[in-house]
């Protein structure tokens, strides 16, 4: 059972990945972003998740450098994720996209590099590039994002290296049972983006009742549900008190009844695009 903010899951290649991290989707470049990353590191986070399309890799890199300097930690203490955007997919363009991301972040390597979306006709060539990147040591782990079961099955027909992670939309209204089961079978770590459903779940009566019994916030209940489901999660916040609150989920445990009641909220409802119907 996950007991500490710095607890990790071991990916199938032996790399250790923190269960909880900071997401920075839609956080613009600037002091707020830098301070959020620094605050996360100061308060014990060891995982930071960004992407090329977020347009904020430079600020994330600055926050990492300043956060490490202030805490005395080393680069090796952090787990940094970025993603290749759709317009850059393809073999050579993916190799170039990684170099741009590394330069902006000010890093020599990533801990995890993901294909952001399964662009038809391109994601297999993109994956070949990720395999080359992995073999070069410029990414300690490689994976995918927003891949359904059929995308993974198609990819695995030709892949030399199995993805270590699949990062997808996951929250109590979208529990992705089939995909989670497939990832478990394949040894692919399941990771959640938008775990709080962009705030839509914070007034849910079932979640509020469970939160009241545990003396926790609804956000903390959802994040704990993620962890007890074996799901890596990366809640986004720029406010230090929220960053701290989101990490305060290791001093309690949801009951089996809590877990089933939360899972029963599933409606297969998304706040983001369906990967099968996304206009790439």
UniProtKB/TrEMBL annotation:
Substrate binds at residue 116. SUPFAM superfamilies: NAD(P)-linked oxidoreductase (SSF51430). Keywords: NADP, Oxidoreductase. The active site is at 54 (proton donor). Coiled coil: none annotated. Residues 31-267 form the NADP-dependent oxidoreductase domain. The keyword Transmembrane helix does not apply. The record marks 83 as: Lowers pKa of active site Tyr. Signal peptide: none annotated. CDD domains: AKR_AKR5G1-3. The keyword Ribosomal protein does not apply. One of its GO terms (molecular function) is oxidoreductase activity, acting on the CH-OH group of donors, NAD or NADP as acceptor. It comes from the Bacteria. Belongs to the aldo/keto reductase family. PANTHER family: 2,5-DIKETO-D-GLUCONIC ACID REDUCTASE, NADP-DEPENDENT OXIDOREDUCTASE DOMAIN-CONTAINING PROTEIN. This is Aldo/keto reductase. It comes from Paenibacillus chitinolyticus.
């Amino acid at each position: 059972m996950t007991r500490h903010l710095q607890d990790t899951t071991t990916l199938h290649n032996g790399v250790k990945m923190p269960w909880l991290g900071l997401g920075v989707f839609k956080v613009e470049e600037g002091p707020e972003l830098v301070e959020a990353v620094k605050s996360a590191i100061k308060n014990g986070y060891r995982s930071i998740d960004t992407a090329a399309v977020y347009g904020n890799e430079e600020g994330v890199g600055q926050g990492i450098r300043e956060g490490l300097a202030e805490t005395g930690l080393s680069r090796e203490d952090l787990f940094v994720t970025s993603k290749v955007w759709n317009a850059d997919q393809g073999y050579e363009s993916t190799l170039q996209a990684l170099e741009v991301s590394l330069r902006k972040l000010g890093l020599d390597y990533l801990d995890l590099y993901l294909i952001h979306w399964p662009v038809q006709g391109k994601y297999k060539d993109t994956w070949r590039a990720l395999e080359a990147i992995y073999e070069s040591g410029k990414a300690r782990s490689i994976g995918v994002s927003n891949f359904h079961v059929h995308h993974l099955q198609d990819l695995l027909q030709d892949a030399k290296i199995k993805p270590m992670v699949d990062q997808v939309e996951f929250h109590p209204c979208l529990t992705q049972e089939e995909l989670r089961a497939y990832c478990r079978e394949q040894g692919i770590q399941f990771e959640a983006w938008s775990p709080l459903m962009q705030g839509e779940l914070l007034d849910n009566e079932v979640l509020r009742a469970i939160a009241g019994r545990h003396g926790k916030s609804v956000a903390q209940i959802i994040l704990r549900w993620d962890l007890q489901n074996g799901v890596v999660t990366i809640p986004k916040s720029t406010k230090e008190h929220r960053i701290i609150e989101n990490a305060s989920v290791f001093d309690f445990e949801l009951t089996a009844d809590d877990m089933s009641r939360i899972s029963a909220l599933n409606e297969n409802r998304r706040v983001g695009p369906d990967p099968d119907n996304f206009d790439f």
